[in-house]
Amino acid sequence: MLKILKKCIKGNKVHVRRGDTVAIISGKDKGKRGKVLAVSLKESKIMVSGVKIVSKHAKARNQSEESGIIKTEGAFYSCKAQLVCPHCNQLTRIMHVFENNKKHRSCKKCRKII
């Protein structure tokens, strides 16, 4: 378990971008899909909508706000999520393709540019 996490932290590379659809491949939310809300390159973590819901206790800052428990998405390591290709709708890895001197991400299964 620790070897996997060290591997994720070591590289500081994240294979997904904000707005991509990903599927969770390990953990209690295994099998869930959602859009990437935020990416932290420094920690190699991502936040996905509807995945890893955590409870935060919020205190009211003024009288118009209410205090209470707020449910929100938490961050987790990007190695626990895999990209879903928008064309073939399958879990896939990405490969890089150069086209017109520009680097593009491409699906390994259907070979279409993401």
UniProtKB/TrEMBL annotation:
Domain annotation KOW: ranges: 15-42
Family matches, as PROSITE patterns: RIBOSOMAL_L24
SUPFAM superfamilies with a match to the protein in the record: Translation proteins SH3-like domain
SMART domains, sorted: KOW
Top-rank taxon, per record: Bacteria
A GO molecular-function annotation: rRNA binding
GO biological processes: translation
GO cellular component, as recorded: ribonucleoprotein complex; ribosome
A Pfam family the protein falls into: ribosomal_L24
InterPro entries named among the record's database cross-references: KOW, Rib_uL2_dom2, Ribosomal_uL24, Ribosomal_uL24_C, Ribosomal_uL24_CS, Ribosomal_uL24_KOW, Translation_prot_SH3-like_sf
CDD domains, per the entry: KOW_RPL26 (cd06089)
Keyword line: Ribonucleoprotein, Ribosomal protein, RNA-binding, rRNA-binding
Family according to the record: Belongs to the universal ribosomal protein uL24 family.
Functional note: One of two assembly initiator proteins, it binds directly to the 5'-end of the 23S rRNA, where it nucleates assembly of the 50S subunit. One of the proteins that surrounds the polypeptide exit tunnel on the outside of the subunit.
The protein's assembly and partners: Part of the 50S ribosomal subunit.
Protein name: Large ribosomal subunit protein uL24
